[in-house]
Every structure is written in structure tokens, then in C-alpha cells.
Amino acid sequence: MPKKIRLGILGGGGDSLIGVLHRVASHINDNYQIVGACFNPDFAVSQAFAKEIDIPLNRIYSDFDTLVEEELKLPEDKRIQVCSVLTPNFLHFPMAKKLLDNGFHVICEKPMTTSLEEAKILQAAHKASGKVFALTHTYTGYPMVRQMREMIKDGVLGKIHKVDAKYYQGWINEIIHDKDKRSTVWRLDPKKAGISSCMGDIGVHAFNMVEYTTGLRVASLLCDFNYLYEDNQMDVDGTVLIRMDDHVKGVIRSSQVATGEENGLAISIYGEKASFHWEQENPNFLYVKSDTQPMQVFKPGHAYNSKLSLDGTKLPAGHPEGIFDSMANIYLGVARAIRGEAYNDGEFPTMEDGVRGMNFIEATVESSKNNNVWVKLLS
Ligand SMILES: NC(=O)c1ccc[n+]([C@@H]2O[C@H](COP(=O)([O-])OP(=O)(O)OC[C@H]3O[C@@H](n4cnc5c(N)ncnc54)[C@H](O)[C@@H]3O)[C@@H](O)[C@H]2O)c1
Fold it and tell me: Does domain 5-138 have CATH number 3.90.220.20?
């Protein structure tokens, strides 16, 4: 077993949603050790959390700039090699850019930045750095999502006709209907979240899933947002018609006010020979349908799956693996890339996915604001 990769964490403290997913995922395949962090803008809170999870306090830093400054003073074989950026959206760009500029690899939460302009600057910084950059569209790590990608590449669906991706949640209902509460969450604050709430937070996952699985690119879109209240500047629901390469059409539906929905990401892909249906809340079942055959259900860990899919399972078939394992698969791919080992380009989303995602988010806002016009994405 090669030496563990020295991992730093930014954000993702005890008070966060996503921190535990990254911490557990980084441990799952025994590739990483967390050696430094700034978990929280409040130094005392950050230190208290480090104590709670038993990380030595000498490399818990008061802020991000100090982390970079102090780590650069350490010899290279002790220094943090890769940092996970798990803060609210507006901090992704300055943190990721400074990390790349100073020779660190980066694992970054989505949306990659708060604008396409920032995304392009980050892309240039990444190119100049020669470092690994991964964007954690978590759901691409599921074995059955990888299986869809590989089967589509192998032509199992034939020519694709239509794609329908949906990401429905209901959690913002509790907040959005209360005028006072609306100003308390960063996801509804354009200064912290960027120009979109719903599409930027979850619609972008559905967009990435469409491009990841089909290997096609969205060429143009038309979007209709719902803001629900006049004083709310951020979308909480949106429907996007998409036109892809090669006469493929489809829809991306996304909502944070879909009452009763939890984490309802699902995708259907219809081709001339067969179709796929997959749901995040039941990730170990991939339904394959056709007009002439009975429905098949593919499951992880069986020899009939692709190499990329099988690489994402650790236990024999029938032992359910889930969201922690999906993120762990992304961390595994990143470890291979950092170590200069061979890896499949489906193992983790990249800078290009981040730029595409920001292009998508901005296009949806532009379309909806201009009375639902078609907007082209960069080719
Ligand atoms: N991949 C996914 O499926 C997924 C799921 C949820 C969230 N996310 C993304 O993860 C990011 C964080 O989301 P969350 O829901 O965990 O947010 P959160 O508000 O729950 O947590 C944010 C964390 O960042 C810390 N933080 C804030 N400012 C900081 C600073 N200046 N320095 C250091 N730490 C700071 C906070 O203390 C907190 O620990 C967002 O960009 C979000 O879009 C991704």
C-alpha cells in the first residue's frame, strides 16, 4: 500500500451538511489522511471540532490564507497535498485558485464557482498548475451510474432520442414561505450562493448526470424558473428544455419546493433499442427497458457489469453500498490521478465539468429572466 495522501479540509465542519460525507469517503479506500484543516471561520469552533474527531491541533488554522502560508513553510513530504473545498459556493473560487496557484491538488464541491467568468479563470489557473482538480458531482460515483455511461458508450441503447433528468427536494418549503427565515440561509443569498439557488445547487447535478451518462453535450436550453415570492431573488424551482448534439432533446426538472420529496434525483434515457431508468434513492437498481423484451434490472457487483462499474464496488453483490461509497469512488479516482496511476476518465468529474456546469447555470438564469428564450451553451 503506498503512503497515504495528505488531505486538508476547508469548511465541512461539525455544523455542515457535506463534511461528514467527504471525511468518511476519504477514509473508505485507505488512501488519505486528514492532516490539516480550517473547518469553520471561527477558530475556536474549528479547533473544538478537530478535537472531537481527533485531528492534531497543530495544523488546524485560523483561516484559509494562514493554512496556505503555514503549509508552504513545511517540507514537501509533510505538506498537505490535496485540499477539499467544502465551504459555501462563493468561497470555492478564491480558495481553489489560490490552492492551484500554490501547487496543491484540489477536490472542490459544486457548483464550482459563482460565475462562468470565474470558472474560466480557474480553468486557466488549473492548466498552468499541472495539478489534479476534481469536482464532486457525488452521484457519478455510483456503480449503476457508471454502468449507464459504459453501456451507452457500447451502443446498448442505440441512438439516443430523449433524456429526462429530475432532481426534486422539498426542504426549502420550511424556509421560503416565511419572510423572516428567507434571509437566514446562504443558499437563498446571491452573495453566497451565486445567481441561482435551485439550479445552482441541484439542477446542476442533473445536468452533469445527463452529460456524464450520455457522453453528449447540451447545446442550448430554455428555462422557466419559479421564485414563488416577489421579494425572493433566487429560483427555488425550474424546468429546463434541452437540445443536445445529434437531435437529442430532453428536459431537466429541478425543485426545492417539491413537497415531500427528499433527494429525488432520477434519470431516464431513451434510445432506439432500449432505455435506462435510475433513481438516486434506490441507487443499486438500474432498469433497462425495451419495446420487445421483458424489463431487466442490473445490480452492482455482478460480472456482467463494466470494469468502471465493478471498480466502484467493494463487497460481493447483494451488500448494498450507498452515497458514502459513491463519494469514496471519486476520492479513489483522485488518489490514482495524484499518484500518477492510470485511471478511467469516468472516475471523477473534472474542471471541464465545472465550466460546463457554470455555463448551464448562467444560461438557465438568462433564459428565464428574458421570458424563456432559447440560450446557446458554449460549444
Ligand atoms: N456534492 C453534493 O452532493 C453536495 C451536497 C450538499 C452540499 N454540497 C456543496 O457543498 C458546499 C457546502 O455545502 P453544505 O451544505 O455543507 O453547507 P453548510 O452551510 O452546511 O456548511 C458549510 C461549512 O463551511 C464552513 N465555512 C463557512 N465559511 C468558511 C470559511 N471562511 N472558512 C472555513 N470554513 C468555512 C462552515 O463553518 C460550515 O462548516 C456547497 O458548495 C454545496 O453546494 C454538495
Answer: no
